[in-house]
Amino acid sequence: MLRPILNIDDVELQPRPPHFAPTGPAAERYDAKVGFIGPRIGAKKLGYNITAVPPGKCAFPFHNHQVNEEMFLVLAGTGEIRIGDRTWPIRQGDIVACPPGGPETAHQIVNTGTEELRYLAVSTKMSPEVAEYPETGRFGVLAELAPAGDGKPRTMVFVGREGDSLDYWEGA
Predict the structure, then answer these.
(1) Which of 84, 91, 97, 146 is packed most tightly, with the most Cβ within 10 A?
(2) Could you tell me which of 158, 160, 76 has the C-alpha nearest to residue 117?
(3) Model pTM?
């Protein structure tokens, strides 16, 4: 059994993997380092990570989840969280709930301070998940698939816009 305890000081923050790193104009707005916790302590139904966002940046685009719920605990720094059409200031010690739902639950954390903003993110891990990006009309589907023949985990990620779907019978 994995040790179910991990001290926050032992969480190593890493840059995003290259396939999730923002490029082009997006790199001007988005940046973050993430330290994944859940797998290290044996979590099964909740995901945990520490996210560190530099001043003036966001970790993710404005989005809502159809399936999973998120919670954020601000560990250090200051910023703002936008939820739906409202914005609130956030600071160390604040806890934020982001339940699943439509665009009214869409959320985004922005570091508006002069120092790094760090927060603990906790979320349910139900699959498949559909995230919507109301400002751009995009959506994303993330699903955990059955393991590959060698036992390695597999996931499917698809990002598109409504109406971009192939016909069900195309190529059948």
Answers:
(1) 84
(2) 76
(3) 0.93
